[in-house]
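Attaching the record inline, Q. Sequence:
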Amino acid sequence: MYVETWCFASKKAIFNQVRKANLPQRDQPKMLKGCKTDSLIAALHAKEDKNDPSFWSFKRATQRKGAHALLHYPAMMVPSLQGLIMKCVQESQPDVGTVLDPFVGSGTVLVEAMGHGLDFHGVDINPLAGLACLAKSGPYYIDAFEDKSMDLLVAISSDKKKHTARQFSGRDKWHDPEAIPALEKISHHISNEPAKWARRLFWLALCRVIRTTCKSRKSTYKLHIEEVKENAKTPDVYAEFIKVIEIFQDHIAHEHQSLTAKNLLNRGRYIGTLDMRVGDNQSLLNDSDAATAVYDLVMTSPPYGDNVTTIPYGQFSYLPLQWIDVQDIDERVDLALIANTHSTDSASLGGKLKGASEKADSLGDRYRSASHFLGLLKNQTNGRKRFASFFYDLDKSIDGIAKATKANGIHAWTIANRRICGLEAPMVPMMIEMLEAHGVHTIGDISRGIHFKKMAARNALAATMTSETILLARKDSATQ
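Structure, as predicted:
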């Protein structure tokens, strides 16, 4: 059933997005718009620089520091922007205490939640995201980490044994022969570290080394064999690992100093509650939290579109996850997620096309934007399947997320429009409609340009994004 509860600005946004569905994507105005009188919108307006039309693009955002800098992950959110929104939420609603990020990624929202003294719950299908968030959660034992780092490096350098290298699909394709035994030796000694919190940091450091020393191009997060230049030197895995460990020591010390200054650490541990789960948020949220609405703030950024053109989180994570002990992430991690370069992406939103025709019919019946776009894709069978599979999965996720949100709770979704079969998929209007259908009503949005991307301006399939929208919404106070 179609929900006729949109505010005027939401209807206009939907009309404009659908109207431009077959036009090239353009950079959107960098501005904050409110469609309802709301205390959060007022707080955000009070923070923006009215003399700077590009304020919300955060062009001058400072370089990542502290825990934010421990891992370079695909499509990371801007910490200072998300932090400003979080600060405004707290100012407009002082009783906010719990944050949910159901597509947690590298943990930008996690680190900002810690910096604002909030309890946090994160979910992600990608085990590497789980590792990053667990490592960033602490504890922050500065001296102990330096001591353990020294012990680890000494053990590695003094080990003259030849360790049997593990086997996995693509090992010899993506790693130089000299790098394989070095990675095996480092992995072996990390696994001997008795403290899990330290192992997680070491594993994350190794993940960075694997990405920088593998034979894939460094200009993209996808796995593409890099053309070897004449007289190019083979990367020194040991030297790279030492460098990353030193970088980690600096970032951890910075995060410790920042949290200590805010009285948010107790003997190196964060004073709030932090919880990270690896798996499908549809089942994890529906099984645990949906029965009782527990979250005041949902702040997240889901994959922007189908798995043909969206960010390849699984490809990015595949090689690092082959060299670490995934049991240190979560004993319940499904090893099928790391079986090949596409396993994680196939398990993500829209990764399975089974039943796509029925999903398309369901979406078309419920949502006007879906009906319109599916009509544009009438003769594009594969495009219809990709669109329907992704948005059907996203709709199911939103159902659990909305149920787990407290009445009057805030949602902040960072989203953008991908292209399917040359047409711009209506991500923003679809999100507005789906949230409304689940009792979460749009109160405004922020449109901003994307100025720092680790990808080409255009890939082989479609033009890449140049702008994104932060959709702001509030759950109905009468909905439970």
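The chain has a mean pLDDT of 88. The two ends are 20 Å apart (CA to CA).

More tomorrow.
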